[in-house]
Amino acid sequence: MSANKKENLIVGLDIGTTKICAIVGNVTEDGIDIVGIGTSPSSGLRKGVVINIESTVASIRKAIEEAELMAGCEIKSVYAGIAGGHIKGINSQGVIAIKNREVAQEDVRRVIDAAKAIAIPMDREVIHILPQEFIIDEQDGIREPLGMSGVRLEAKVHIVTGAVASAQNIVKSCNRAGLDVADIVLEQLASSEAVLSPDEKELGVCLVDIGGGTTDIAIFAEGAIKYTSVLSLGGNHLTNDIAVGLRTPMAEAEKIKQKYGCCLSALVGKEDKIEVPSVGGRKPRELSRNVLCEILGPRVEEIFTLVNREIVKSGLEDVIASGVVITGGSSILEGMPELAEQIFNLPVRRGVPQKIGGLVDVVNSPVYATGVGLVVYGSRNSGTREHFKEGGSDDSIFNTTMRRMKTWFKEFF
């Protein structure tokens, strides 16, 4: 069966720095069942941005083939994630007069048009326009303004922009692998769909998605996204530190990190030993696991300190009442939540995909948060399918953003 004929199959493609992951979800009346997963090591990206299209295309093909085999379907169209240091989020607001003293869909579209009328440099494009709240005649906190009476309508929105070239390279890589891109989605927005509960978003929460090349941050309060940011730091830096500190090849450093890694010395026994392969044919050495801890601890601390600085910069540190949720492959490292609690002075938990069916035990890991989140996002927005094509008009993503407006309200409120 083809994914296009079978409309209720949705595919999320998480194009990451260390791995490319395709997740196939089947939308049922009860929710989403995960029916296929494919992963492939990724070598064509650096810090979340495509630097080698050929390698990226090969990895995408491999992941897609694996997912097709498992799900028993043909994949034609995907929801692709985007990340990288070029992503910028800004808050904006717009005001209009209500035409017939009652808010219609047209008024909502116009007020969002007004809110997005900000100067955006030529080399950037709008990826998302996320409504936060509406205000009618000074009455704030309105989630769904349709049908309400008033004379003046204001909208507060969060606008996410990214480098045109980076978005185009993601679309190009997918197109060359034989796939249409139904939508490009900010990775932390996708992860939040999978790992955060509505209560957390309402009360205020900071999502920190620590991937291989980037750490993506999203702050939610009152049910809406208030701040987004991307740091060009991630798990690859930890691997690199191990390789340099223990003088071992990168591939071995990655294995050591996954098997023995810990970033809090209090959790490591004094007698714990690890075997470290050497470079250049020398004999492997045996070292105390504490040495590994002393290498990883400061780097993880640095990542969380920079995240904390972003939280302070956003001015929202007082609204994150339900704490911090860490997810992404690097958050599996032992001691991460404990160290994060010390730095943030807030409750911290690891986020794994929630409220899904099907292959739950397989995707029950922070590694798949973005992939599953892309499927959840796709299921909510499948009514506005737009296919990006390589070499399309420059504003294709912008037009899509506008056409998606009508479903934003269903999605967020």
Please outline the helices and strands:
Blueprint: E1 9-15, E2 19-28, E3 31-41, E4 45-46, E5 49-50, H1 53-71, E6 77-82, E7 88-97, H2 105-115, E8 124-136, E9 139-142, E10 152-163, H3 164-176, E11 180-186, H4 187-195, H5 198-203, E12 205-210, E13 215-221, E14 224-231, H6 235-245, H7 250-260, E15 273-276, E16 285-288, H8 289-314, E17 324-327, H9 336-344, E18 348-350, E19 357-358, H10 360-363, H11 369-381, H12 396-412
Parallel strand pairs: 1-6, 3-19, 6-11, 12-17, 17-18
Antiparallel strand pairs: 1-2, 2-3, 4-5, 7-10, 8-9, 8-10, 12-13, 13-14, 15-16
Helix pairs in contact: 1-3, 4-11, 6-7, 6-8, 8-9
Descriptive account of the structure:
With 413 residues, the chain is an alpha/beta fold. The protein has 3 domains: 9-85 and 164-195 and 353-412, 2-Layer Sandwich (Nucleotidyltransferase, domain 5); 88-161, Dna Ligase, domain 1, CATH 3.30.1490; 198-351, Nucleotidyltransferase, domain 5 (2-Layer Sandwich), CATH 3.30.420.40. A hairpin with a 2-residue loop joins strand 8 and strand 9. The chain contains 12 helices and 19 strands. It has a 6-stranded mixed sheet with strand order 11-6-1-2-3-19, sandwiched between helices. A 5-stranded mixed sheet has the order 14-13-12-17-18, with helices on both faces. Helices cover 36% and strands 30% of the residues.
